[in-house]
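Support request, please re-run this one:
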Amino acid sequence: MLKLGSKIRTLRVARGYTQEELADRCDLSRSFISQLENDQVSPSIDTLERILRVLGSDLKTFFSNDKRQEKIVFKVKDRVPMYLDELGIKGFILMDNIEDKSIDPKLIEMEPGAETEEEEPHEGDEFGFVISGKLELILDGKKYKVNEGDCFYYCADRKHKIRNPYKEKVKFIWIDIE
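Re-run finished. Output below.
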């Protein structure tokens, strides 16, 4: 049996997913992901392709023994959209297909009245810088006003969300740090 497990675990952790989150995104069970990462089962090609797609990779890259060329510049055209416009939030992952990164920067635009879903506590830290407008950061129910030019930083070990209760669009950089 080919030892895929540790490589899949590395990709999953690099994306910041728990086994359950990866399983949900791939329509698989958490126990299957666990067994896969421990090399107790082998996935079908279709299942492996689905897992790799969620993890921002593909079969060619995954099985390549070549050292990947270090990517320095990330072009606007390479950004990956994150949110639906109907929610009043537009987001873009700024650096994609980087398996060993410890940060995940995003460019976010929120319309007036828009807000993210409340995130449950998780590992890592989060940093933000408001480019234009202002926003409200809510950590465990406590509200913080963040104005244009301000930044925020917190340990993600508490419930958190961001909202725009103001009358103008806000644009900010949001970085998840592992």
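The mean pLDDT is 88. The first helix runs from residue 5 to 15.
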